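Deliverable D5.2: sample structural annotation.
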Amino acid sequence: MNFTIDRNTFLKPLGHIYSVVEKRNTIPILSNVLIETNSSKVSLTATDMDMDIVETVECIVSNPGKITVAAHTLYDIVRKLTDGSEIKVELKDTNLEISSSKSQFILPTLPVDDYPVMTDIEKGSNFSVQSIDLANLIDNTKFAISLEETRYYLNGIYLHVPTSNKDKLRAVATDGHRLAQAEIPLPNGAEELQGIILPRKAVGEIRKLIDSTDGQVKVIISSTKAKFIFPNSILTTKLIDGAFPDYQRVIPQKNLNKLIVSNNDFSKAIDRVSTVSMEKSRAVKLSLKGNILALNVNSHDLGNASEELEVNYDCDNLDIGFNSKYLLDIAAQIQGKEIEILLSDSASPALITDPDQDGVIFVLMPMRV
Protein backbone atom coordinates (compact mmCIF):
# COMPACT_ATOMS: atom_id res chain seq x y z
CA MET A 1 0.00 0.00 0.00
CA ASN A 2 1.31 3.42 -0.99
CA PHE A 3 -0.63 6.68 -1.26
CA THR A 4 -0.16 10.45 -1.04
CA ILE A 5 -2.72 12.79 0.49
CA ASP A 6 -3.10 16.41 1.59
CA ARG A 7 -2.76 16.78 5.36
CA ASN A 8 -6.05 18.72 5.78
CA THR A 9 -7.93 16.23 3.60
CA PHE A 10 -6.61 13.36 5.74
CA LEU A 11 -7.22 15.05 9.10
CA LYS A 12 -10.95 15.63 8.66
CA PRO A 13 -12.02 11.95 8.39
CA LEU A 14 -9.46 10.95 11.02
CA GLY A 15 -11.16 13.41 13.38
CA HIS A 16 -14.41 11.48 13.00
CA ILE A 17 -12.73 8.09 13.12
CA TYR A 18 -10.63 8.49 16.24
CA SER A 19 -13.57 9.57 18.42
CA VAL A 20 -15.31 6.25 17.70
CA VAL A 21 -12.29 4.25 18.88
CA GLU A 22 -12.20 3.77 22.65
CA LYS A 23 -8.90 4.87 24.18
CA ARG A 24 -8.69 1.82 26.43
CA ASN A 25 -9.33 -1.54 24.81
CA THR A 26 -8.79 -5.05 26.08
CA ILE A 27 -8.76 -6.18 22.44
CA PRO A 28 -5.76 -4.48 20.73
CA ILE A 29 -7.24 -4.55 17.21
CA LEU A 30 -10.15 -2.34 18.36
CA SER A 31 -7.66 0.47 19.00
CA ASN A 32 -6.81 0.45 15.29
CA VAL A 33 -8.23 2.09 12.21
CA LEU A 34 -8.55 0.01 9.05
CA ILE A 35 -6.96 1.83 6.10
CA GLU A 36 -7.87 0.60 2.63
CA THR A 37 -7.03 2.10 -0.76
CA ASN A 38 -8.37 1.50 -4.25
CA SER A 39 -7.36 3.25 -7.48
CA SER A 40 -8.09 6.82 -6.33
CA LYS A 41 -9.50 6.83 -2.79
CA VAL A 42 -8.63 5.83 0.74
CA SER A 43 -11.28 4.56 3.15
CA LEU A 44 -10.89 4.62 6.92
CA THR A 45 -12.92 2.33 9.17
CA ALA A 46 -13.23 2.36 12.95
CA THR A 47 -15.41 0.30 15.28
CA ASP A 48 -16.11 -0.27 18.96
CA MET A 49 -18.21 -3.39 18.19
CA ASP A 50 -21.44 -1.45 18.82
CA MET A 51 -20.91 1.13 16.10
CA ASP A 52 -18.70 1.50 13.08
CA ILE A 53 -17.91 4.38 10.78
CA VAL A 54 -16.42 4.35 7.28
CA GLU A 55 -14.97 7.57 5.81
CA THR A 56 -13.80 7.87 2.20
CA VAL A 57 -11.63 10.64 0.68
CA GLU A 58 -9.75 11.08 -2.58
CA CYS A 59 -5.98 10.73 -2.72
CA ILE A 60 -3.18 9.71 -5.12
CA VAL A 61 -2.76 5.95 -4.91
CA SER A 62 0.49 4.44 -6.16
CA ASN A 63 -0.18 0.94 -4.86
CA PRO A 64 -3.56 -0.25 -3.49
CA GLY A 65 -3.72 -2.25 -0.27
CA LYS A 66 -5.07 -2.36 3.28
CA ILE A 67 -3.72 -2.50 6.82
CA THR A 68 -4.66 -1.51 10.38
CA VAL A 69 -2.76 0.94 12.59
CA ALA A 70 -3.34 2.66 15.97
CA ALA A 71 -6.09 5.24 15.40
CA HIS A 72 -5.22 7.76 18.12
CA THR A 73 -1.51 7.71 17.24
CA LEU A 74 -2.23 8.27 13.56
CA TYR A 75 -4.63 11.11 14.33
CA ASP A 76 -2.12 12.83 16.63
CA ILE A 77 0.64 12.57 14.02
CA VAL A 78 -1.46 14.05 11.21
CA ARG A 79 -2.86 16.74 13.52
CA LYS A 80 0.65 17.92 14.43
CA LEU A 81 1.99 18.01 10.86
CA THR A 82 2.20 21.33 9.04
CA ASP A 83 -1.09 22.73 7.81
CA GLY A 84 -1.49 22.11 4.05
CA SER A 85 1.50 19.77 3.80
CA GLU A 86 1.60 16.62 1.68
CA ILE A 87 1.68 13.26 3.47
CA LYS A 88 3.05 10.06 2.03
CA VAL A 89 1.83 6.79 3.55
CA GLU A 90 3.57 3.54 2.66
CA LEU A 91 3.40 0.01 4.00
CA LYS A 92 6.85 -1.51 4.36
CA ASP A 93 6.85 -5.11 5.54
CA THR A 94 4.73 -4.99 8.72
CA ASN A 95 5.24 -1.30 9.48
CA LEU A 96 3.45 1.79 8.20
CA GLU A 97 5.74 4.65 7.24
CA ILE A 98 4.29 8.16 7.34
CA SER A 99 6.41 10.98 5.97
CA SER A 100 5.84 14.69 5.37
CA SER A 101 8.57 17.19 4.57
CA LYS A 102 11.37 16.34 7.01
CA SER A 103 9.16 14.39 9.43
CA GLN A 104 9.01 10.60 9.39
CA PHE A 105 7.11 8.13 11.57
CA ILE A 106 7.17 4.34 11.53
CA LEU A 107 4.18 2.65 13.17
CA PRO A 108 3.58 -1.03 13.92
CA THR A 109 0.51 -2.58 12.33
CA LEU A 110 -1.90 -5.45 12.95
CA PRO A 111 -3.23 -7.75 10.21
CA VAL A 112 -6.47 -6.92 8.44
CA ASP A 113 -7.82 -10.44 8.93
CA ASP A 114 -8.11 -9.79 12.68
CA TYR A 115 -10.22 -6.66 12.19
CA PRO A 116 -13.89 -7.20 13.21
CA VAL A 117 -16.58 -6.47 10.64
CA MET A 118 -20.05 -5.47 11.77
CA THR A 119 -22.70 -7.56 10.06
CA ASP A 120 -24.66 -5.60 7.49
CA ILE A 121 -28.05 -4.24 8.40
CA GLU A 122 -31.00 -6.44 7.60
CA LYS A 123 -33.97 -5.12 5.65
CA GLY A 124 -35.83 -2.28 7.34
CA SER A 125 -37.28 1.21 6.92
CA ASN A 126 -35.45 3.14 4.22
CA PHE A 127 -35.84 6.91 3.88
CA SER A 128 -33.95 10.15 3.36
CA VAL A 129 -34.00 13.19 5.63
CA GLN A 130 -32.63 16.69 5.18
CA SER A 131 -29.45 17.13 7.21
CA ILE A 132 -30.81 20.34 8.79
CA ASP A 133 -33.95 18.50 9.96
CA LEU A 134 -31.88 15.69 11.45
CA ALA A 135 -29.68 18.26 13.19
CA ASN A 136 -32.75 19.96 14.69
CA LEU A 137 -34.08 16.65 16.04
CA ILE A 138 -30.74 15.93 17.70
CA ASP A 139 -29.96 19.44 18.97
CA ASN A 140 -33.36 19.89 20.61
CA THR A 141 -33.21 16.58 22.49
CA LYS A 142 -29.68 15.23 23.04
CA PHE A 143 -28.97 17.35 26.12
CA ALA A 144 -31.74 15.46 27.97
CA ILE A 145 -30.28 11.99 27.33
CA SER A 146 -29.69 10.17 30.61
CA LEU A 147 -26.12 9.39 31.70
CA GLU A 148 -27.30 6.82 34.24
CA GLU A 149 -26.15 3.46 32.88
CA THR A 150 -28.55 1.44 35.06
CA ARG A 151 -31.47 2.97 33.16
CA TYR A 152 -29.93 1.99 29.83
CA TYR A 153 -33.19 2.47 27.92
CA LEU A 154 -32.88 6.23 28.60
CA ASN A 155 -29.29 6.40 27.27
CA GLY A 156 -30.37 7.56 23.83
CA ILE A 157 -32.91 9.36 21.67
CA TYR A 158 -36.26 7.65 21.05
CA LEU A 159 -37.08 8.04 17.35
CA HIS A 160 -40.61 7.10 16.31
CA VAL A 161 -43.82 7.98 14.50
CA PRO A 162 -46.31 9.09 17.19
CA THR A 163 -49.70 7.40 17.04
CA SER A 164 -51.36 10.77 17.67
CA ASN A 165 -49.64 12.42 14.69
CA LYS A 166 -48.65 9.98 11.97
CA ASP A 167 -47.36 12.65 9.59
CA LYS A 168 -44.44 13.49 11.93
CA LEU A 169 -41.13 11.89 12.85
CA ARG A 170 -40.58 12.57 16.55
CA ALA A 171 -37.47 12.45 18.72
CA VAL A 172 -37.69 12.28 22.52
CA ALA A 173 -35.06 12.12 25.26
CA THR A 174 -35.39 12.18 29.04
CA ASP A 175 -33.27 11.60 32.11
CA GLY A 176 -36.18 11.59 34.56
CA HIS A 177 -35.61 15.23 35.56
CA ARG A 178 -36.32 16.80 32.19
CA LEU A 179 -37.81 15.75 28.88
CA ALA A 180 -37.19 17.13 25.39
CA GLN A 181 -39.30 16.49 22.29
CA ALA A 182 -38.85 17.62 18.69
CA GLU A 183 -40.62 16.80 15.41
CA ILE A 184 -40.06 17.06 11.67
CA PRO A 185 -42.38 16.22 8.77
CA LEU A 186 -42.44 12.46 8.22
CA PRO A 187 -39.99 11.53 5.42
CA ASN A 188 -41.26 9.32 2.59
CA GLY A 189 -40.50 5.70 3.46
CA ALA A 190 -40.59 6.15 7.24
CA GLU A 191 -44.29 5.39 7.59
CA GLU A 192 -43.70 1.88 8.97
CA LEU A 193 -40.85 2.87 11.28
CA GLN A 194 -41.07 1.11 14.62
CA GLY A 195 -39.87 3.04 17.68
CA ILE A 196 -36.08 2.79 18.10
CA ILE A 197 -33.58 4.14 20.64
CA LEU A 198 -30.40 5.59 19.12
CA PRO A 199 -27.48 5.29 21.61
CA ARG A 200 -25.94 8.46 23.02
CA LYS A 201 -22.50 7.87 21.47
CA ALA A 202 -23.98 7.29 18.01
CA VAL A 203 -26.10 10.44 18.34
CA GLY A 204 -22.95 12.47 19.02
CA GLU A 205 -21.08 11.02 16.03
CA ILE A 206 -24.05 11.52 13.70
CA ARG A 207 -24.26 15.16 14.77
CA LYS A 208 -20.56 15.68 13.93
CA LEU A 209 -21.07 14.21 10.47
CA ILE A 210 -24.03 16.51 9.83
CA ASP A 211 -21.77 19.55 10.30
CA SER A 212 -19.88 18.69 7.12
CA THR A 213 -22.97 17.70 5.13
CA ASP A 214 -25.47 19.64 3.05
CA GLY A 215 -28.53 18.07 1.51
CA GLN A 216 -29.97 14.70 2.41
CA VAL A 217 -28.89 11.85 4.66
CA LYS A 218 -30.07 8.35 3.76
CA VAL A 219 -31.28 6.33 6.74
CA ILE A 220 -31.86 2.58 6.94
CA ILE A 221 -33.36 1.24 10.18
CA SER A 222 -34.04 -2.36 11.18
CA SER A 223 -35.11 -3.82 14.51
CA THR A 224 -31.51 -4.02 15.79
CA LYS A 225 -29.40 -1.56 13.77
CA ALA A 226 -29.47 1.83 12.08
CA LYS A 227 -27.33 3.04 9.19
CA PHE A 228 -26.78 6.71 8.29
CA ILE A 229 -25.31 7.29 4.83
CA PHE A 230 -23.62 10.64 4.20
CA PRO A 231 -21.90 11.70 0.95
CA ASN A 232 -18.47 10.48 2.14
CA SER A 233 -19.31 8.64 5.35
CA ILE A 234 -21.36 5.69 6.52
CA LEU A 235 -22.20 5.19 10.21
CA THR A 236 -23.79 1.96 11.40
CA THR A 237 -24.88 1.49 14.99
CA LYS A 238 -26.59 -1.10 17.11
CA LEU A 239 -29.80 0.13 18.73
CA ILE A 240 -30.57 0.06 22.44
CA ASP A 241 -32.54 -3.11 23.14
CA GLY A 242 -35.17 -1.85 25.54
CA ALA A 243 -38.58 -0.23 25.84
CA PHE A 244 -38.71 3.55 26.08
CA PRO A 245 -41.18 4.62 28.81
CA ASP A 246 -44.58 6.13 28.05
CA TYR A 247 -43.25 9.69 28.05
CA GLN A 248 -46.60 11.27 27.17
CA ARG A 249 -47.86 10.57 30.68
CA VAL A 250 -45.46 13.17 32.12
CA ILE A 251 -46.27 15.95 29.64
CA PRO A 252 -48.56 18.39 31.51
CA GLN A 253 -51.94 18.95 29.89
CA LYS A 254 -53.50 21.50 32.29
CA ASN A 255 -50.79 24.03 33.06
CA LEU A 256 -52.76 27.28 32.84
CA ASN A 257 -50.32 29.80 34.33
CA LYS A 258 -48.52 31.21 31.28
CA LEU A 259 -45.24 33.08 31.64
CA ILE A 260 -43.70 34.77 28.60
CA VAL A 261 -40.25 36.32 28.93
CA SER A 262 -37.38 37.40 26.69
CA ASN A 263 -35.22 34.31 26.31
CA ASN A 264 -32.03 36.35 26.15
CA ASP A 265 -32.81 38.30 29.34
CA PHE A 266 -34.02 35.18 31.14
CA SER A 267 -30.92 33.14 30.23
CA LYS A 268 -28.48 35.84 31.25
CA ALA A 269 -30.27 36.48 34.54
CA ILE A 270 -30.37 32.76 35.41
CA ASP A 271 -26.68 32.50 34.55
CA ARG A 272 -25.80 35.46 36.77
CA VAL A 273 -27.68 34.42 39.91
CA SER A 274 -26.60 30.77 39.59
CA THR A 275 -22.98 31.88 40.04
CA VAL A 276 -23.47 31.39 43.80
CA SER A 277 -25.53 28.19 43.55
CA MET A 278 -24.23 24.94 44.99
CA GLU A 279 -22.53 22.73 42.40
CA LYS A 280 -24.68 19.75 43.36
CA SER A 281 -28.20 21.21 43.39
CA ARG A 282 -27.83 24.40 41.29
CA ALA A 283 -31.23 25.44 42.68
CA VAL A 284 -32.84 28.73 41.66
CA LYS A 285 -36.19 29.99 42.93
CA LEU A 286 -38.62 31.70 40.55
CA SER A 287 -41.19 33.98 42.23
CA LEU A 288 -43.98 35.38 40.06
CA LYS A 289 -46.06 38.35 41.18
CA GLY A 290 -47.85 40.36 38.54
CA ASN A 291 -45.48 41.20 35.69
CA ILE A 292 -42.37 40.75 37.82
CA LEU A 293 -40.28 37.59 37.94
CA ALA A 294 -37.86 37.47 40.88
CA LEU A 295 -34.94 35.04 40.70
CA ASN A 296 -33.31 34.02 43.97
CA VAL A 297 -30.41 31.75 44.89
CA ASN A 298 -29.53 31.10 48.54
CA SER A 299 -26.36 29.19 49.27
CA HIS A 300 -25.09 28.67 52.82
CA ASP A 301 -21.47 28.44 51.63
CA LEU A 302 -21.33 30.74 48.61
CA GLY A 303 -23.81 33.52 49.45
CA ASN A 304 -27.06 34.84 48.00
CA ALA A 305 -28.11 36.36 44.71
CA SER A 306 -31.32 37.90 43.37
CA GLU A 307 -32.52 39.64 40.23
CA GLU A 308 -35.86 40.87 38.89
CA LEU A 309 -37.19 40.72 35.33
CA GLU A 310 -40.23 42.29 33.70
CA VAL A 311 -42.34 39.53 32.15
CA ASN A 312 -45.76 38.90 30.66
CA TYR A 313 -47.73 37.13 33.40
CA ASP A 314 -51.26 37.80 34.68
CA CYS A 315 -52.02 34.67 36.71
CA ASP A 316 -51.88 33.83 40.44
CA ASN A 317 -48.72 34.50 42.42
CA LEU A 318 -46.43 31.48 42.28
CA ASP A 319 -43.10 30.32 43.73
CA ILE A 320 -41.29 27.38 42.12
CA GLY A 321 -37.72 26.06 42.10
CA PHE A 322 -35.67 24.54 39.27
CA ASN A 323 -32.17 23.33 38.55
CA SER A 324 -30.56 26.37 36.91
CA LYS A 325 -28.37 24.24 34.61
CA TYR A 326 -31.44 22.45 33.27
CA LEU A 327 -33.16 25.79 32.64
CA LEU A 328 -30.12 27.07 30.74
CA ASP A 329 -29.88 23.86 28.68
CA ILE A 330 -33.48 24.31 27.57
CA ALA A 331 -33.15 28.04 26.95
CA ALA A 332 -30.16 27.35 24.68
CA GLN A 333 -32.46 25.44 22.30
CA ILE A 334 -35.04 28.22 21.99
CA GLN A 335 -34.72 29.82 18.56
CA GLY A 336 -37.24 32.60 19.07
CA LYS A 337 -36.81 35.81 21.04
CA GLU A 338 -39.25 34.68 23.73
CA ILE A 339 -39.58 31.61 25.88
CA GLU A 340 -43.01 30.42 27.01
CA ILE A 341 -43.32 28.58 30.34
CA LEU A 342 -46.62 27.00 31.36
CA LEU A 343 -46.92 26.34 35.10
CA SER A 344 -49.44 24.73 37.42
CA ASP A 345 -48.16 24.89 41.00
CA SER A 346 -44.88 24.68 42.92
CA ALA A 347 -44.87 20.87 42.94
CA SER A 348 -45.83 20.17 39.31
CA PRO A 349 -43.61 19.99 36.22
CA ALA A 350 -43.33 22.98 33.90
CA LEU A 351 -44.09 22.81 30.19
CA ILE A 352 -41.70 24.98 28.17
CA THR A 353 -42.24 25.78 24.50
CA ASP A 354 -40.60 27.75 21.72
CA PRO A 355 -43.18 29.86 19.81
CA ASP A 356 -40.87 29.75 16.77
CA GLN A 357 -40.59 25.93 16.59
CA ASP A 358 -43.63 23.71 16.06
CA GLY A 359 -43.53 20.37 17.85
CA VAL A 360 -40.63 21.35 20.13
CA ILE A 361 -41.51 21.09 23.83
CA PHE A 362 -39.61 20.63 27.06
CA VAL A 363 -40.79 19.34 30.41
CA LEU A 364 -38.87 20.23 33.56
CA MET A 365 -39.46 18.79 37.02
CA PRO A 366 -39.42 21.29 39.90
CA MET A 367 -37.22 21.04 42.99
CA ARG A 368 -37.49 22.22 46.55
CA VAL A 369 -35.72 25.49 47.30
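Annotation notes: The first helix runs from residue 7 to 20. The longest strand covers residues 51-58.
The annotation will be released with the project's public dataset once the embargo ends.
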